[in-house]
Every structure is written in C-alpha cells, then in structure tokens.
C-alpha cells in the first residue's frame, strides 16, 4: 500500500502535512508535487504531494480522490523556496506552494499559441488609413515579432477581433516557434556606447557573475542614468554563461518601453509573466522557460517563482516600489524571495533604483551585506531637471483659488506654445475626494466601508475600496439639508481645469478609471508619445518607467497627499514619488523643468527632492527612524483580525494580545513590545470589521517566534474571525 504526504491549501499549522492512501488506480499517475484533491474536515480541498512515506499509525487514513494536475513547474528548488517562505512569512506550506505553482491549468488551456509576424510585402496604406486600429496593430507586430494573438492585442490596445481581421486579410501570419539556442542580438551599431559610470557598473557586476557565488548589489543611479542598459549588458553576460535571468519590474503593463528594449535585444529569448496573461498563455510561457527556450524572464512580482533551469542573475528594477510586496497570504516581498533564490542557486541579485528603500540603502552601507554601485550622471551629459517649489499658502493669500499656481499655468502655456509635452501628477483619482453637507457636517460614506466616497465626473459617488457606487444626493440623507458640497481634487478635476484654461489642448488622463481595459496602459502611453496629445495627467502609474523625450515639464499638483498620511513611511514615499515623477522631465535634448505645489514647502522630503539629494534625505529620515525605533532599526509584524461581528473581532484581538504577552515571558524574548489592539486605519471594509496588533522588536526572528507560537495554540480559537499575519508590513 502506498501513502502520500499532502500539504493542503487550508489554514493549518505552519509545516503541517497529512497522510493519504494512494488508490491503486492513481499509483502510476501520482508523482511528487502533483496537485491533488483530498477529503479534509468534511469537504474536498486541494493540496500538493510533497513526499511518500508510511504514516506513524494506520487508523482512519483517507484516500486521495483524484489527481488534478502534475504541477509541472514545481521542483525541488522551488520547494525549498516554499519551505523558506513558511518560516519567513508564517504561512502554511500549502499556501506557499499554491503561491508558487499558481492555479491549475487544464490540458485544453495549456495549448501554446503560435507567434505572429507581419506577412511579406507592403500593406495597403490607403486601406489601413480607414482602419487605424489595424494599422496600430501591424506596427506593433512589426516592432515586436513573435507575439501571440492575445499578447499582440494587449500590446496594441485592441480587441482580438482586430488581430483576427488582419489574419483573415493575410497581413499577419503565424511564425514558426523559435527553438532553443543563441539569443538574437541587435546589430552592434544599435547598441549604445556606455558612459564611464555605466562601464564601471558593468565591470563590477560582471566580476560578481563570474565569481560563481551568491551576492547582492544595489545599483543606485539617478533617473536617466542608464540603468536599463547596464541590465542588458549583464543579461548578455549571463546568457553567454548558459544561465538564465529573472527581471522584475513593478507593473509589466506600465513599462512597455522596457519590454520593447528587451525584445529588441534578445528576441524570443524573452518570456513575459504577468497578471494580464490568460491561464493558457501563462502555462505556455512557463513551459518555454522550463525547457530553456526562454532564458530571460521579464515580469511583475510573481515572476520571481519562474521555473528557470539554472538561475544566474536576478534584476529588480525600481526596487523601492511597494507593488513588490504581496498583500494576500503568503505576504511575501519579491526582494526577499529573490535573495533566497539567489542563495540557493549561487546567483547574483541587482537592485536598481534612483530612490532605494531605506532598508536597502542601509544594507548597502559599509559593512552591510549588499555591494553599492552609484551612478550620479544622466547619459549624453543631460542635466537633471530644475525643480521649483510653489508655496500654495502664498498663492491663496494672493487671491489665486485655482488648483494651478500662476507659475504652473505660465509654464504649461509656454510648453503648449512650443509644441512640447507636459505631465501633471496627482496621486488621487476622481473629481473630488470628499462630499460634505455644510449644514450638519455629515460626510457621504460608503455603507460597507468606513471611508468617504469619491465623487466622479459622471455624477456617481464611488468607494475605491469595495467598488460600491451611489448617485450623488441633492439632499443630505442625514438632515435633509440642501447645502451639499464637494471638496478636494482628483485627476478628473485636473483634466477639466486644463481644458478650461487651454481649450485647444489635447489631454490624456491615466488612472485606474481610464486603464481598466486590457491593453489600455500601452495604448495611452503610445498615444502620448507618438500622437498629438500635449498633456498627460495621471496618478503614480505615470511616475514609473516613462522615457518620453518630448516631455519638458512635470507639474505636481499637490505634494501633500502622501506627505501627511498616517504612516511612518510617509516622508519616504513622498520623496520617492516626487523624485521619480520629476525624472520624467528633460530626458531628451531639451532641458526639463519641474514645479511642485505644496502647503508645506519647508519639509525636508520636499527640499531634498528639489535638490535631487538622496543622501540628504537618507540621513535626515534615518535620524527620525532611529529616534523612534522604526525600521530599519526594528522589525514589525502586523496581525489583522477581520469579521462580521465587531465584538468577536475585538475579543479575538484581545485574546491574541494576552497570549503574545504570555509567550514573550515563557520564551524570555527581550526588547520587544505590543502595540494595540486597536481599530485598523480603515476600521471596516466590505462590512467586515478590522482590528490589528503590531509586534515591534529588535530581532525579526524573536517576534516571528512569538507570532508562530501563538498561531499554533490560538489560530482556531475564534473561527468566525479571520487572522492575517504580515511580516515586515509596508502598510500600517
């Protein structure tokens, strides 16, 4: 009789597995890491086979019901990563394996699509002039040959029907699959020469690659210093060593220019992994990766789990970005997983950013575990943009109640007159951010969440947490008053104001409302870069990865939105956003200018951003963190309790607080404290009440021991309350 050890995908103790009997009809089919369906607590659940062993006793051993798939992209290397994640992030082994393996894919979905190329011969320009979407799609196919039908549609920002029409006309054709082998390089003349700083960076990192041991490096380069070209040279070196590369970007849909550069340099050796892919597309890309046909994996956070055969290099671009942290269990950070995978595979990790996370820069200081490489100059001797700070208090005192200062209005008018492009940044979407009754002071709030609605230009009030929407009332539902007014500014309001001031200006807006459709990010950015639009308005998504040479002006509508958030990282986020969005200006032959509007012009995060002074910001902010014992001078764990009954949630949080204090005494843990329990920053979302505890200690291992000990004994005490553990949280 054969028995399998299964890690189930349900809340259980951290390393807990369960034994099941393997029926005779499944014995030839079942393998290590197979995804199976098993009976558990009166229901059928999924899990992964992690081994075969005889249970310590033979009573009540149940049968595996069926094999769902072979989970072909799990292997011993990734299993070791999963075990590390259990210890690091206090999740179950089943959850860790599910995170790495992803959702199961049926054989019908796993069929690989053929790539498409433009058919030989000239296409009829007159016909395509009447079909602009088909023309855009052909241009995209010509720029990036080999994309599948769905990938091409996403890149061009069109529907699959447009691609099908081109196939029917014979203007597109299927290309033969590219086999494994050497990567396709650009003509040598098209590869730009390196600056002295780039040359030094490549030389140091090339030595690290050849050292055949794990190492981590922080590449700190100002915006426009050419970090991407350094990445490309290192990838070339790694491929020549017959090893593979994983490149992480914050959001793949927002970095089309980087995707195009990678495909132009390495052709079909590049595999894309991101959330916009269908299950079948993801399966096909992973199959190419596992087979060694795609040696360069480019993707967002979860691409760190790509099943590469021989991992030699991991690059994390914009390593400071919070999107590298997963908000669902297991709440891993891709940077930490990258370091673990590099240690397992003797690989090199390169963390690139103009504004590194304080924790990363601290690790790169002398004596730290990271090497540090600095690039202080832009390529082609371009100057960093000049940054001006506008005090909105003085604007108001002078009688200017517009959302634009006089300086920003004049700068916009000047760029429009010269035919140059401008970017306006505001990290808040919608028309207005708060709707208030001036008679009773009541705020229009979502009935399911403890947050105020945002007013949108279509007249609807929308909750940006649960999506609930309601018509904006004309009469206050609390007091019946008719003096309801909206306050605050969102991107829709900025768009309206630009059109009012400059009626002939063509404006594009890029936020969560305008980019909901697949491929819309690429379409908007392509239109702004190559079309006649003169102004792009957007949230933080426009601060990432844009390299549009015609942009000479960046305006920050309000720097105070992130600065005064109730979070100890508010100053850091403000500095990073201001520096990153400022870096979009002046990347071509013409100098750039940045105008930052604020009510707090003397804050050090704004002053240091104005001066492009990362070190100045680092030292000031680290002094604040040190005095308050915040990370990186301590470690945090957030434990969140959610449920439909607030009394149950409060009781569960209080119970955990008592058990944690008891565990701290029993384990003799020193220098730690419990903050809370208290209502979470948003005390209710989707009708679920939220309370939280924060563990704060000087040793990460100690507070993880405490949380793990209580999780073992108290995890199921309040079954109606969900408990979520976040090690090293980025959002408090």
From TrEMBL:
Residues 208-374 form the Helicase ATP-binding domain. One of its GO terms (molecular function) is 3'-5' DNA helicase activity. Its EC number is 5.6.2.4. It catalyses: Couples ATP hydrolysis with the unwinding of duplex DNA by translocating in the 3'-5' direction; ATP + H2O = ADP + phosphate + H(+). Zn(2+) 1 binds at residues 437, 440, 476, 479. Coiled coil: none annotated. It is an enzyme of class 5 (isomerase). GO terms for biological process: DNA recombination; DNA replication initiation; DNA replication, synthesis of primer; double-strand break repair. SMART domains: DEXDc, HELICc. InterPro entries: DEAD/DEAH_box_helicase_dom, Helicase_ATP-bd, Helicase_C-like, P-loop_NTPase, PriA, PriA_3primeBD, PriA_3primeBD_sf, PriA_C. Keywords: ATP-binding, DNA replication, DNA-binding, Helicase, Hydrolase, Isomerase, Metal-binding, Nucleotide-binding, Primosome, Zinc. Residues 471-625 form the Helicase C-terminal domain. GO terms for cellular component: primosome complex. The keyword Transmembrane helix does not apply. Binds 2 zinc ions per subunit. Zn(2+) 2 binds at residues 446, 449, 463, 466. Its cofactor is Zn(2+). HAMAP family: PriA. Initiates the restart of stalled replication forks, which reloads the replicative helicase on sites other than the origin of replication. Recognizes and binds to abandoned replication forks and remodels them to uncover a helicase loading site. Promotes assembly of the primosome at these replication forks. Belongs to the helicase family. PriA subfamily. This is Replication restart protein PriA. The lineage of its organism: Bacteria, Bacillati, Bacillota, Clostridia, Eubacteriales.
């Amino acid at each position: 009789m054969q028995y399998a050890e299964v890690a189930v995908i349900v809340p259980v103790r951290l390393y807990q597995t369960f034994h099941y009997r393997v029926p005779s009809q499944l014995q030839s089919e079942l393998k290590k890491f197979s995804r199976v369906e098993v009976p558990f607590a009166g229901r059928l659940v999924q899990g992964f086979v992690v081994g075969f062993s005889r249970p310590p006793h033979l009573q009540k051993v149940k049968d595996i019901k069926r094999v769902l798939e072979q989970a072909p992209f799990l292997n011993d290397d990734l299993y070791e990563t999963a075990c590390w994640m259990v210890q690091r992030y206090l999740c179950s082994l089943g959850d860790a394996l599910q995170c790495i393996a992803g959702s199961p894919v049926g054989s019908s979905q796993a069929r690989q699509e053929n790539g498409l190329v433009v058919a030989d011969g000239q296409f009829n320009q007159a016909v395509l002039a009447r079909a602009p979407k088909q023309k855009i799609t052909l241009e995209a196919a010509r720029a990036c040959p080999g994309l599948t039908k769905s990938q091409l549609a996403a890149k061009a920002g069109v529907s699959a029907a447009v691609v099908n029409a081109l196939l029917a006309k014979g203007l597109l054709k299927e290309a033969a699959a590219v086999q494994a082998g050497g990567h396709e390089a650009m003509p040598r003349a098209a590869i730009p020469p390196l600056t002295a700083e780039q040359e030094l960076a490549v030389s140091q990192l090339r030595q690290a690659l050849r050292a055949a041991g794990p190492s981590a490096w922080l590449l700190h380069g100002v915006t426009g210093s050419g970090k991407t070209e350094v990445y490309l040279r290192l990838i070339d070196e790694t491929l020549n060593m017959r090893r593979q590369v994983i490149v992480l970007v914050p959001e793949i849909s927002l970095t089309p220019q980087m995707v195009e550069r990678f495909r132009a340099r390495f052709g079909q050796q590049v595999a894309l992994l991101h959330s916009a892919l269908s299950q079948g597309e993801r399966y096909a890309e992973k199959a190419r990766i596992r087979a060694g046909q795609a040696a360069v994996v480019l993707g967002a956070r979860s691409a760190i789990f790509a099943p590469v055969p021989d991992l030699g290099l991991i690059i994390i671009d914009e390593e400071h970005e919070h999107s590298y942290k997963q908000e669902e269990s297991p709440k891993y950070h891709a940077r930490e997983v990258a370091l673990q995978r590099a240690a397992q595979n003797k690989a090199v990790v390169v963390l690139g950013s103009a504004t590194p996370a304080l924790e990363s820069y601290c690790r790169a200081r002398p004596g730290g575990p990271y090497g540090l490489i600095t690039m202080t100059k832009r390529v082609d001797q371009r100057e960093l943009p000049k940054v001006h700070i506008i005090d909105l208090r003085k604007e108001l005192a002078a009688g200017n109640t517009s959302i634009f200062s006089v300086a920003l209005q004049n700068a916009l008018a000047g760029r429009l007159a010269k035919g140059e492009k401008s970017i306006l940044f505001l990290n808040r979407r919608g028309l207005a951010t708060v709707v208030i009754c001036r008679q009773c002071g009541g705020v229009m709030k979502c009935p399911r969440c403890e947050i105020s609605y945002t007013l949108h230009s279509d007249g609807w009030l929308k909750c940006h947490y649960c999506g609930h929407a309601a018509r904006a009332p004309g009469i206050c539902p609390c007091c019946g008053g008719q003096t309801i007014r909206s306050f605050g500014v969102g991107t829709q309001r900025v768009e309206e104001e630009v059109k009012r001031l400059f009626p002939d200006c063509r404006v594009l807006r890029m936020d969560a409302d305008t980019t909901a459709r697949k491929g819309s990010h690429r379409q908007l950015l392509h239109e702004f870069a190559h079309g006649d639009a003169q102004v792009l308005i957007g949230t933080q998504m426009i601060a990432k990865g844009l390299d549009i040479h015609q942009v000479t002006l960046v305006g920050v509508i309000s720097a105070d939105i992130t600065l005064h958030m109730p979070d100890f990282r508010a100053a850091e986020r403000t500095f990073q956003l201001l520096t990153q969005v400022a870096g979009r200006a002046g990347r071509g032959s013409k100098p750039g200018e940045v105008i930052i509007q604020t009510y707090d012009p003397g804050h050090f995060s704004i002053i240091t951003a104005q001066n492009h002074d990362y070190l100045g910001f680092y030292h000031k902010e680290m002094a604040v963190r040190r005095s308050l014992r915040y990370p990186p001078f301590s470690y945090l764990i957030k434990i969140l309790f959610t449920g439909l009954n607030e009394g149950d949630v409060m009781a569960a949080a209080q119970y955990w607080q008592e058990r944690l204090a008891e565990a701290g005494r029993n384990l003799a843990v020193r220098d730690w404290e419990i903050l809370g329990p208290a209502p979470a920053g948003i005390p209710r979302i989707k009708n679920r009440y939220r309370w939280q505890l924060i563990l704060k200690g000087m040793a990460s291992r100690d507070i993880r021991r405490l949380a793990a000990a209580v999780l073992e004994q108290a995890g199921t005490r309040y079954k109606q309350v969900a408990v979520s553990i976040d090690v090293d949280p980025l959002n408090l």
